Amino acid sequence: MQDSKDRTETAERASVDGISRRRLLGTAGAVGAGGLVLGAAGGAAGYAAASPDAPAALSTVGSTEVAWGGAHQPGILQPLQARGHLIAFDLAPGAGRKEAAALLKRWSATARRLMKGGGSDAAVARDAGPSSLTVTFGFGRTFFSRTGLEKQRPGALDPLPPFSSDQVDPRRSEGDLWVQIGADDALVAFDALRAVQKDAGQAAKVRWQMNGFNRSPGATAEPMTARNLMGQVDGTNNPKPSEPDFDRRIFVPDSGADPAWMAGGSYAVVRRIRMLLDDWDKLALDAQEKVIGRRKSDGAPLTGGTETTEPELDKVGADGKVVIPLDAHARISRPDQNGGAAMLRRPFSYHDGIAADGTPDAGLLFICWQADPLRGFIPVQRKLDRGDALSAFIRHESSGLYAVPGGPGEGEYVGQRLLEG
Ligand SMILES: C=CC1=C(C)c2cc3[nH]c(cc4nc(cc5[nH]c(cc1n2)c(C)c5CCC(=O)O)C(CCC(=O)O)=C4C)c(C)c3C=C
Ligand SMILES: [Fe+2]
């Protein structure tokens, strides 16, 4: 979520670029830096759509195009999209570096083409605009031994430590290659998923696949930070691109990157986190709010103010206890409680029907981005694993860690500097 200064800056940028202001302020966990969103012909129409005689706002949703290439891959800095697909592949037996390079070339060409709109030859998305489609590619730890590229494997891909509360299914975890697809239209997202899978051909086999969603742009009259399936405002205290240390926290620096091919890249930690929603729903509102340390209605800290007000961590209530409990999720996950560790959270919710026990198979496809998991996810999850009030209501069911290289240069494919370096 943006603070008021960020909101003003974003709104100014929006009017310059002709992008719907609602769109930019709406679902953003983080708003892309200038130039990342290429244009939205229907921006003005989208803004006007609140009045009854205005054209439909959906033209704005369809016409927003995200740039391919640049310093970072798409799908990290853009606002959350309404639909998401995650898919992991293992290279086929006998496929090595050559086949992997050819696959990344195919995938890059497909992503570049589909992100412009119009869809693949399958015609599923033929009438649709780009719809904010992003396709993001990453390499898992096992990719490097399969391709003889061990010397190029980043130390940051060392396995995540085991956490005591993990109930991780290895068949739905890790993988040689990982692709994240996001779009504001379900058919556009599905079309891209199918195209990515077809491109894999004989070179790689699907290891696991998951589907997610977020609120649709334009769905609320007062857009605010996204909500998750527990009903909480989620994403408020994400690092913001306007902060001076944002790039250092989220992206591998251009100079001195180790390994060099990861310059401008980022590491994605992906956790499928089941929410025990029946248990959660039994909790009274004030108890739910104490679990997080923020109000459910508007995401403001329990010590008062608005969503963007700094929590008063030492404030004591009439009962003599700190107002924000010591085990509140939003207290113990803060950078200042974890040696400065920070990450950019950019999740999708998921719902895969009702489990055999009658409870919803639903939760969060938690995706967080950082320059180094040792200064991001790992220390924070260690802390949460030991004493997060939220732990009783969630279950980490799968896990992945991927090296996501920087955006491809002109004429380059994603990962070229690794595969041809
Ligand atoms: C290891 C990292 C984290 C996991 C796993 C995680 C799971 C998780 N979180 C929520 C809901 C909320 N989280 C919020 C804040 C927050 N969470 C993390 C990290 C993890 N969360 C961080 C770093 C922060 C920001 C802390 C800060 O700097 O203030 C919030 C509060 C609003 C916000 O800032 O986003 C909510 C709500 C769920 C439901 C969940 C697993 C399903
Ligand atoms: Fe959280």
From TrEMBL:
GO biological process: iron import into cell
Taxonomic placement: Bacteria, Bacillati, Actinomycetota, Actinomycetes, Kitasatosporales
Positions of the Dyp-type peroxidase N-terminal domain: 73-214
Localization terms from the record: Cell envelope
Pfam families, per the entry: Dyp_perox_C, Dyp_perox_N
InterPro entries per record: Dimeric_a/b-barrel (IPR011008), Dyp_perox_C (IPR048328), Dyp_perox_N (IPR048327), Dyp_peroxidase (IPR006314), EfeB/EfeN (IPR006313), TAT_signal (IPR006311)
Protein name: Deferrochelatase
Known EC number: 1.11.1.-
Location of the region described as Disordered in the Swiss-Prot/TrEMBL record: 150-171
GO cellular component: cell envelope; cytosol
